[in-house]
Specification:
By secondary structure, this protein is mainly beta. The protein is built from five helices and 38 strands. The strands form ten sheets. Strands 3, 33, 34, 35, 36 and 37 form a six-stranded antiparallel sheet that branches. It has a five-stranded antiparallel sheet with strand order 2-8-7-4-38. Strands 13, 14, 15, 16 and 17 form a five-stranded antiparallel sheet that branches.
Length: 474
Amino acid sequence: MWTIEQTSRAAGFNSLDEEVHIDSVPVTGTVPPWLHGTLVRVTPALMDGGGKTIKHWFDGAAMLNAFGFGDGGVSYGSRFLQTDYLGDVRRGEANFGFGADPCRSLFKRVMSMNDVNKFDNANVNLQELGRRYIAMTETPLPVEFDPKTLATLGKPAWPDKDAYGQVTTAHPHYDYERDEVVNYTAHFGPRTSYKVYAAAEVGAKRRLIGSLPVKRPGYMHSFGMSERYVVLAENPLVVNPMSVPLSKKPFIDNYRWEPERGTRLIVMDRHTGELQGIHETEAMFCFHHVNSFERDGELVVDLIAYDDPAVIHMLDLDQLRAGEPTPISGSVLRRYRIKLDGSGVESEDIATEVSPELPRINYRRNNLRDYRWMYATNYGEGDWVDELVKVDVTTGESKRWAEPGCYAGEPVFIDRPGGTAEDDGVVLSVVLDAAAERSFLLMLDAGTFEEVARAEAPHHIPFGFHGQFFRDKT
């Protein structure tokens, strides 16, 4: 268990309403000379407007923050995604989202296919697809942007209906062999279903891989993928889709926690679309998968597990800003081993001394395959995410980075060109220095997990979720 207490971490939940571009920011240490490209992160940056404050942290209006690298120097820029939702927040009229006001619930409008394009607050994650770049959220409308200028380029809606759903994930997987992304949607209606699809281009027709009918779909923020299978970890936070249009509850409060249902690990062959099986295990809640791969007749699924979904409302913005002492169930790196012959599921917790979130791996090399290293944030001895960890998933041993009064964001691994070891590269993390009320970009040697450099931002960067490193094109 860990506890939120009254501390200076509150600066990370303050709005940032400043757009800047700086060609060169102060750097301490030595930036790896091979590092060329741009780290772009998307954050919920604007929480206040029109005399009102959004209810849930997940509903802050999206801003892009970018650190550019070249010839040992670092540039910095920040720019809002130009969306309808941004204007709504500024006017105090934000009327949809993860934790929207009960009288203006997301699903009242998102149940209509024609209204999906109104939900454009893409503040969760980023993806490169066909040399185009999109920001994403949990509705199926991406927002395209330029990773160099951070300019918003449009909202390229998917034109097809076969893979259509009102809810999706902002965590698609990339298939490097086919040069396409794989994702899933949940289609709500009289015949509710999960749909797994692939897409090779932004805004182009998607290829439906397979679908599965479901009466009460679960809230799934991400999913797992191996070389052959897609696995949906349907935890028992479920919703009755036909009751939602008449509900006066916020989006997430339409879901009910029913632990007696347990968790269903739904495994689909991603090449044929056939259902391999539904494998049952204990109840748990999950935001993020880490990796999945096949080995010795098993499908191994690693994810960050919680005992229950209590963490969701621990992230209500008024509570985070107030710093009220609130116990939150600790997260754990959990490994499920699904017997592909149908004989059962085994699970074990790895590195139980850490409480990780926002996990990353050497994705290009090891996603879909057996691996050794996971990088993550960690709830250490402080009041918020105040550590970074590197975990050896084969032994449970870990290395840590921490600095007093500092709060680290998602650790993004970038492999060194020509490197042979899985951990040959750097880890980048945006860190809030609470005393200075400013952020900096931390650069760690991914092998030793020791600092090699840091670059100073000109302001605080609000706590956010995910980012991607886009290499310079040759």
